[in-house]
# Entry
Amino acid sequence: MQKILLPTAALSFLLLAGTALAAPPLATGAPSADAGIAALRDAALKDDVAMDIIEGLTTEVGPRPAATAKEADARVWAVAKLKALGFSNVRIETYMMPAWVRGEEEATIVAPFPQKLAIAALGNSGSTGKKPLEAEVVYFPTIGDLQAVPDGSLKGKIAFVSNQMAATQDGSSYGVYGMARFVGPNIAAKKGAAAILIKSVGTDHHRVPHTGVTRFEDGVAPIPAAALSVPDAEQLERVFKRGKPVTIKLVVTPRFNGKQESGNVIAEVPGSDPSAGIIMVTGHLDSWDLGTGAIDDAAGVAIVSAAAKRIMDAGTPRRTIRVVLAGAEEVGSFGGNAYYEAHKNELHVLTSESDFGADRIWRVDFAFPETGKPVAERIATALAPLGIGKGEHPAAGGADNALFVKTGIATIDLQQDGTRYFDLHHTADDTLDKVDPQQLRQNVAAWTTMLGIVANAPESLIAK
Amino acid sequence: MQKILLPTAALSFLLLAGTALAAPPLATGAPSADAGIAALRDAALKDDVAMDIIEGLTTEVGPRPAATAKEADARVWAVAKLKALGFSNVRIETYMMPAWVRGEEEATIVAPFPQKLAIAALGNSGSTGKKPLEAEVVYFPTIGDLQAVPDGSLKGKIAFVSNQMAATQDGSSYGVYGMARFVGPNIAAKKGAAAILIKSVGTDHHRVPHTGVTRFEDGVAPIPAAALSVPDAEQLERVFKRGKPVTIKLVVTPRFNGKQESGNVIAEVPGSDPSAGIIMVTGHLDSWDLGTGAIDDAAGVAIVSAAAKRIMDAGTPRRTIRVVLAGAEEVGSFGGNAYYEAHKNELHVLTSESDFGADRIWRVDFAFPETGKPVAERIATALAPLGIGKGEHPAAGGADNALFVKTGIATIDLQQDGTRYFDLHHTADDTLDKVDPQQLRQNVAAWTTMLGIVANAPESLIAK
# Structure
């Protein structure tokens, strides 16, 4: 997922996105795209490189959670692939980070209607220990209802927080309904709960719970925290409607595994003019453990790599394109942050991230200095034939380039259609078969178009 | 699932269904339906009883596998519900049967690309024991490929049998592709395999494996047999395409639990003319253990009960309607067979089963004696406004009335649309949210129409 998911950021994103509508695809009288760019764009609509990358990474590595041996396998795999594609300066940059590892997980309604429920522990969840926790459950229809009860009132109980998330094209419903996951466990812990179950932050109706990271404040001991699949949460709501006390037996045994190695994979298309700066494009190599991370984020890895290769194959660009395949995004952007710390003194002039699946791009947003505005206009013009409209709000970047975005460098968001993203996000169902090859190609075409323009633009992309 | 699923029956069903096309909804010049029947039919389009039954059974009992305490809970639940609805002679009839109980199940690719696969043991599967079985896997694209290898050639290996099932409205693809499950394990065992994995007999793309019963011939020791979810099977096929040896570690620990009690729940709408015989309508109370059995077959239970209640509420019918909610259908029609043995000497004149989900009825098939042909015509006429066409082939009945159908009594199949049935069939995803209330009501309306006509028809329904 592209957006920075800390609650405040999520909320401000929501406020911005609430009024955002796609602009008409082509302003009246706008010039058509440069013929060379148009040719690159249209050729990319037949791209097979991106699908090959997704297929390879999800098949030959599969799930690759942060700071595990599988994530290390992904780095080795990516280095070999990027070298084979012809990139320069392909390398791994490692860092250490705290690792969290899933254990057993089982939830059973004990009373009034005994039956199992499908759950997945949230990242950073505490453990029940091997001995099941059996406790009364208190139902909160929304995170606001949980927030409203007095401190200490949940002592020894399991909180169940539901939500009514609906799909949105721009993904903004994640910011609203995701709060149950982002902050629900911390709130429940502070109110004394023994554990928390949330309705998955998802828009599907399958028995595949949505995991994802949660965070406990310093000084708040992590409690067991897990997501019920959407059908299971609905079932539990129906059980509550009967008005009888509800007891659940819970086993959730993840563990914190100390500091482990993670890393970024970096590759370059060297530019002819070092003084023109670096264009950093990024997606993340790690995935959650439940699926094979096809849409999150093998797709992003594939899209940025395939597009950069197309520019490379078209001849040396003016600016260096640096592909940063970040590690450990899912659990707190450790890779993106490590990259920033290591490279912040190099001249980065533009950044863009792909981390919202593989469905088609429908909108482009810019955060450009005045000097770069003509470049943005040329990009919007060249993207219009792909069905992409120019947005009305500034680009916000994503988790893996957040620190660079914060410095004020030029940022582009090629916004993907999120309508079905949260059917799959962080579930076992995030697998290769969910990638639509035609929509994936449209992504590659849009990225190729954008990179072809920004990598060669004569204008400065730096604020004066 | 409605059809008798022994391989030979499945194949003959396929041959029949292959050429079946829906007849035009209303033959030219056909009389319109009796006004009383039309009124019953149209009122049933607002039915809420069926949804209430599905909601109650799936929520308050949930999964209810054959010959378990949960199936017993379902009988108690059904008796209370049918009494509350006003049925007469509501009772449980028990029988003993062999019970099979799921254990742990876990499959992991050990080489060449380590990762977990989602599996579910098939009913009657053998056990690996607690110690994992680690063995080389041999890939068979189809059941025919497995059949073709020499006896003994799979010694110590795990067979993996795939299939390419596609959705069909009439469900006929189940007969073809289901063979991997129906007979694959028995064939693999006879060829010396240590275990078998099959691609789920399903048409979805979710990480929810499709269980279902398999059978081993007398004298063939059950081997561990499990279904991979469709995405997992596709993943394994991609792994095989790399051309390297594939090793899987498998734990499947179901057990045979001796003879346990199961039972049928029976309820009646007593008729005014005992000599006119009994109309037996049936669905099954048991479900697989993975889901809550909403479409398989709480829906059938609900549809036949709701329709029978509507006839009851309209006044005493001529013929007795007997609702038989069978136990233990999933594992071999033990309930339907026990009912037949106990009641075969009573005068049953017509039978019909609902066991193919809750989606709309699109075709009606009859197997009627000559004397009953005018009744069949009246039914077809009255069903036409519901979008139901008369089929060209004889009704075949289902698993729970198979022995009665075999005696030659009048049979009606109200064929449901199976296009999405095998997305859900025998998976954890068979839950309440999959039931479309409007399509469910159309089912109740069709059943009410049919029962209203056959229960009161002055014609004989018995072959002279």
